[in-house]
Hints:
The protein is mainly alpha-helical.
Amino acid sequence: xxxxxxxxxxxxxxxxxxxxxxxxxxxxxxxxxxxxxxxxxxxxxxxxxxxxxxxxxxxxxxxxxxxxxxxxxxxxxxxxxxxxxxxxxxxxxxxxxxxxxxxxxxxxxxxxxxxxxxxxxxxxxxxxxxxxxxxxxxxxxxxxxxxxxxxxxxxxxxxxxxxxxxxxxxxxxxxxxxxxxxxxxxxxxxxxxxxxxxxxxxxxxxxxxxxxxxxxxxxxxxxxxxxxx
Length: 229
């Protein structure tokens, strides 16, 4: 693990980039701290992105233990390659790109999944799970699902059940769709960042996102239909 340099700790012994305020530290500050050898900066980086990297790694390899190893390999690659990071893309896009390469290599070696790029053309021979009129041209919901609420125990239970339905539905998505919807709707990356991280075209990213959201919407509708019947 990185250790702080002589100038990185104040007289109180606290690091220059305290993990407690990690959510307020800009990525550029984290990078500068890492380049100075700040252990605290590395702790902030891990706290901010480790969970996201693990969730995306699971999309590629499908096994948590292997996904954990892929993420550890990613952190090693990040530390080794940080000095050559030219900041043409955002820090998180760079992280996900490194993860993608590590996960693809590991997935092929483990024979647990097919590499993302080998899964075929997403625009061929597949129809959306629900009518396209339910979405806007950019793939967003035209009629979003209703609020799940949390005002009483019954609504809290319904929300928990609904999240379980969504998680199960996501697990059933084709790998490409699952990767895109995870990055867009779970991790909050924008379309450009997803295209960079997964090396797909904007058109393919849009189609994959539309289909993933369609399938998830259909799963929710089936669930609520059963609840109301």
